Amino acid sequence: MMKAYGQIALPGDRLEQRVEAERPFVMEVGGEKVATVVGIISQREGKAYFVPLKSIYVPKVWDVVIGLVESVSAASWMVDINSPYQALLYAQDFLGRSFNPSTDDLYQILKPGEYVKAKVVAFDKTRSPLLSVQGEGLGRFIKGAVIDVPPARIPRIIGKKRSMTSLLEEKTGCSVFPAVNGRVHVDCPSPELEAIAIMAIRLIERESHTAGLTERVAKFIEEERRRRGI
Amino acid sequence: MKAKVGIDERGLRHDGRRPDEMRPVSMKVGVLANASGSALVEFGKTKVLAAVYGPREPQQRFMVLPEKAILRVRYHMAPFSTTERKSPAPSRREVELSKVIREALEDVVITSEYPRTVIDVFVEVLQADGGTRAAGITAASLALADAGLPMKALVASVAVGKIAGALVLDVDEAEDSVGEADMPVAAAPDLGLITLFQLNGVLTEEEVQRGLSMALRAIEQLVAMEKTVLKQSYEVVEE
Predict the structure, then answer these.
(1) CA-CA distance, A54 to B146, in Å (whole number)?
(2) CA-CA-CA-CA torsion for B81, B84, B90, B92, nearest 10 degrees?
């Protein structure tokens, strides 16, 4: 059995005032800070933070997300961004030019089932999230694999100052992009390394709330590579 | 021979419980992989499964609210949950219980974070032996927490009944059928909030007060148990 790296807090638990947290994970009820989801109180450099173990992704403007194309409509694609809200990507934005429905076939450009890396450019209470692929590194994924993880695990897959992602990249030779909406894109030199990288991400997902995880992930990848002779 | 339903000369009930004793309770979370959150709760022989889906955009867009998510609750008894087959069609009783369970949960779920969406809660009674709404509310509260939906507090529920002139906690089917009154209560002890209070039958004012404090004490224990179960789903990680 492994120990959690901090004390677990549950919905309704009162927290100390010094615990730093974001809405909606912690809310003020009667002047007191109260946890609203299952989370961990993490102590770091004399400060205490509430880290949710469960969360639902709600888009924020300028988030870079990995979207799954779900359907094609007249001049746009409906994109699943692993959130309660389905996002919209306009053909004009994706093509970077004006779109002509008589000559451009959206099915040929982006098919349902394909993944895109896009940024959220507009979202509020009255409208669905609007995506854009205008920007460096954005657009359709042409190689690699995308895996789904709970959005609350993403900060752990990134690590402090990107330490966990760097470790994954260094040990497997893959490029790893964890998106805030709970999807991770891995692009590896070989299928074997891709399998190892995905297994390592699953390990982080399972044990994200435990202490000493970085060392275990490093050991896991090394052993797996040795076992497979790569 | 089966014990007579009531209170015997030793002050015990037909199944050997003291008047203020609940049936053995068991709780499990994360029992369904497809659901955003799920829980299985057993109060003695009563077995209730709850599954939470969402928040998600509904098929019928007209029903959304611009300021908050809608909580939709469906309480349903499986055809095999009773000794005689129960028709799977929703009965008047099930429609009403869906409404009271929804109202018991609406006060704690922070729906303002997810405008224009619905949160579906399915409460399915697998085996009915009295107290299904209480077990259903308890299971739904756990499933909502398991789904990661922000909640001001956890809710639990239990019923107090009156049999042979005495108040008893957590009535089962046999007691319910001969009982003089049945009073289901749901509460969120962390908030000091009662979210469901019903009374079927006749109780004096003094009995209502005594029954309520019996129920609230039991609910505190149930919520503590909910927290332990949620915690355990994280604490034990097999190597």
Answers:
(1) 8
(2) -110
CA distance B213 to chain A (A): 21
Pairwise CB contact (< 8 Å): B148 & A55: yes
Q: Which of A191-195, B4-8, B50-54, B112-116 has the lowest mean pLDDT?
A: B4-8
Contact in structure between A173 and A194 (CB atoms under 8 Å): no
Say which of B149, B191, B231 has its CB closest to residue A10. Answer: B231
CB spacing of B231 vs A27 below 8 angstroms: no
Listed residue (B230, B227, B231) closest to A3, CA to CA:
B231
Task: Please indicate whether, in this complex, the C-beta atoms of B152 and A34 are within 8 angstroms of each other.
Answer: yes
Residue A73 within a domain = yes
User: In CATH, what number is assigned to the domain containing residue A35?
Assistant: 2.40.50.100
Distance between CA A35 and CA A55 in Å, rounded?
13
pLDDT digits (tens, 9 = 90+) for B123-147: 999 999 999 999 999 999 999 999 9
Q: Is the dihedral of CA B28, A147, A9, B141 positive or negative?
A: negative
Print the domain residue range for B48.
25-231
The domain total for chain A is 3
Q: Which helix (H) or strand (E) holds A212?
A: none
User: Which residues constitute the domain of residue A69?
Assistant: 64-140
Tokens of A132: 């854009």
- Say whether both A150 and A180 belong to one domain: yes
pLDDT digits (tens, 9 = 90+) for A85-98: 999 999 999 999 99
Residue of B56, B148, B235 lying closest to A8 (CB–CB): B235
* Whole-prediction pTM: 0.92
Instruction: Give B114's contacts in chain A (Cβ within 8 Å).
Output: 56, 58, 84
Q: How many residue pairs bridge chain A and chain B with CB atoms within 8 Å of each other?
A: 100
What ipTM did this prediction achieve?
Answer: 0.88
